[in-house]
Amino acid sequence: MVSIGVRVPRRQEEIFIPGPIALEDPDKVWSRDRVDLRRLYSDYPKHMNQSTFRLVFTFIANPRLRDLIKRYFRARVPFWRPATFRPYLKHAKPFLTRLGEFYPDLDSFTHLTREMIEPALDHPYWIDQTGAQRPITAYRRAKMASFLDVMFTYMRLHDWPEAPVRPLIFPEDKIGRGFRRPRPIPESVLAQLDAHLHLLHPYARNLVEILRVVGLRAEDAMHLREDCLDWDAAGDPRLRWYNHKMKREGRPLPVTNEVAEAIKRQRVLVKEIPDHFGARYLFRTEYGLYKFESLCYQFTKLSKKVPLRGPDGEVFRLRPHAFRHYSEFLTITG
Description:
The chain has 334 residues and is mainly alpha-helical. The chain has eleven helices and eleven strands. The strands form five sheets. Strands 5-6-9 form a three-stranded antiparallel β-sheet, with helices on one face. A two-stranded antiparallel ribbon has the order 1-2. Helix 7 runs antiparallel to helix 9. It starts with 25 loop residues before the first helix and ends with a helix.
C-alpha cells in the first residue's frame, strides 16, 4: 500500500475489504453500537477510507439515550449522504459526553431545560473515552449547537415522546467562525508545483493535471471511468464525468491535450489492476479506489518537503479543492 501513496497504520485493528460490502437488514445493522453505513447504502464514495462510514455510539453511557440517538441517525438515512453521518456525530459528541457526566440517568430529552444544557454547551473542553482533554473551539461549538437544534426540532415535529418540550438552542449559540472566501492557488505556487510535480506519486500527478484544468470536485475526479476520454466533432478531447453531488451525468467538459495524456498514462497504470467494483475506475488500486486521504497526504508531504511557499512566504498548504477554485478563477477572469 505504501507504493501507491497510502499511509498504513502501525496497528491495523479492522479487516480491510477492498471491494463492495454486502447489504444487511437495517434492523440488524442498527441493533449494533458500531454501525457500518456501507451495509445500508449500495452506492457510497469509494475514495473515502472505510472509517468514514463507521459510526461508534459506545461513548453514550446510558443505553436508552444511546438507542434514541441511533434512532435519529437511522431516520436520516433517506436524506443524508453516507459520508455525512460521521461528521454530525462528531459535532454532537462533546455535548452528549458532558451531558452523560452531569446526568447519568438521563434517558430522554423530555425534561431538559436550558439551564441544564448550558454547562455542556459552554464548556471550553471535553474528555474523550481515552481520557484525553479535547478543546472546543468557537467554530466547533457553533457546529455542535446547529446539529443539536436540527435534531431537537426534528424530534418535536415528529412527536417523539423523548423530544424536548421547548426550544433549547438559541441563535447566539450558532455563531462561530465567519465566512471564508474561496482561495484559488496563487500562480507562484503553481509554478513551484510544476517544477516539483515529478515528486508526487503517479496517481496524484495525473490527478493534478486533471483537476487544474477541469476543476472537478475530488470525488468526481477520483471516480472517473477508464472510458471518460472522448472527442468532439472537431477532434478535440473532452471529458465525460458523473456529478455525484447532483447524482447525474455531467456535461462533457473540453480538456487540453495534457489532460488527455494524463488520462492515457493513468490507463496504463491500471491496466493490470483488479476491478473490485466492476466499474473500471480510472484511479483504482489493488486495495480499492485511490483514497482522498492519500492524495491529501501527497500534497502535504510535497508542500513541506520542497517547501511550497505562498505569497506571504509561509508554507502553502495545498488542498485538492483549491484546484476547483483556481479553475473557477480562470473562468471568471478569462
